Amino acid sequence: MLGKDCTDCMLDLLSRGKFARVIACDPHQNIYQFNNVDGRYLAKMGMNYRMSLPQSFRFGNDIAQLLTRIARTSPAPADPTFQVRGMPELQTSLEVVEDPSRAIQKLLGENKKMTVLARKNSSLFFEAMNVIASLGENKSISFIGGFESFSENHLVPVMDLFYLGQGCTDQIQSKFRNYLTKFPSLESLRSKCEREQDMEWLPKFTIYDKLRGQMMGPEKLEALIRDIEEQVIPSQQADVVFSTVHQAKGLGFQNVVLLEDYLDEATQEEYNIFYVACSRVSTGSLFVAKSSMQALDGPRGRKRGREAQDLDFDYLDFLDDDLFPDDFLESFPEENLPEDFPEHPEDFPDTFEHYTLEEEDTQEGEEEEQCFEDDCFDD
Questions:
Q1: Entry pTM
Q2: What percentage of residues in the chain have a pLDDT greater than 70?
Q3: Domain regions of the chain by residue span
Q4: Of the residues 25, 58, 132, 310, which has the maximum number of CB atoms within 10 A of its CB?
């Protein structure tokens, strides 16, 4: 996904000239709306034919049914006929659990590899601490995107909050030093962040407050970071892999455990994040907390978020027919089209009647992902 300015430039380029354009998109995987990446920009793109790609080759029918359910109950619900299709021969199962932490320990006891996905960085960090505390000597962990990057962006700045609170600004060591030293006290920084809803720093305050409540200072946090660094290995070899949903987009894993920090708000983006998280399993089982499933179907799940009410276009109708003229395809010599290319949209096979989803995800660049990966709607 590209930002607004890049998207406008791309759409402008694609609207010029006479050449075939094929665009694949999945609106339920749009999870960067907080960064002004919105599907409405695609409304500028014209179209002559539309076909759906409902078939997934990543997971089996149980997961496909769950994704269909999420899409149909979201604040901007999919067409009632919308249905994701799984591969019957793929034995991916859905397990609803009371406590994801217990599911993690159960999988470890069975010597099964897994990936733990969180909505928020703070949730991910504290679950990683719990797992590390009980990890056997022959078990290992990893972080998608690398623990060094996670630490640099989320943990070292928390150490700086401790130093700022102690008045030891000379010990502030993160890349945010120039910014932090402008504040005379920790509370002045907190007040500014709360007043402006600074979604880069409020999540860090969440981690800081919880660590402070556990009587942990910067020295103990630094020692914990070193301890974690010694246990981290490449993700392909690790027993437990930790990641936020944003970092995991485009990837598939064996056994996925979702933490209990999904669907806190009834907005389309929160449903999309849950949708992406549930679609990351490619083998084994997907473990979803009972509380998340209750939120999906409960009052929060049925509530239409403000974001959905404000949309001034059909959320699923991304591509309109106004940009290109009706004779657009007539400009192409017939010999350049397949022999069986339909002349009219209604001639497409029935399986392509409805606009659905299932694109093959792509992994955004690590630098762009890390920028977004602050998970700006943290606690």
A1: 0.73
A2: 68
A3: 4-146+232-318+353-372, 149-226
A4: 58
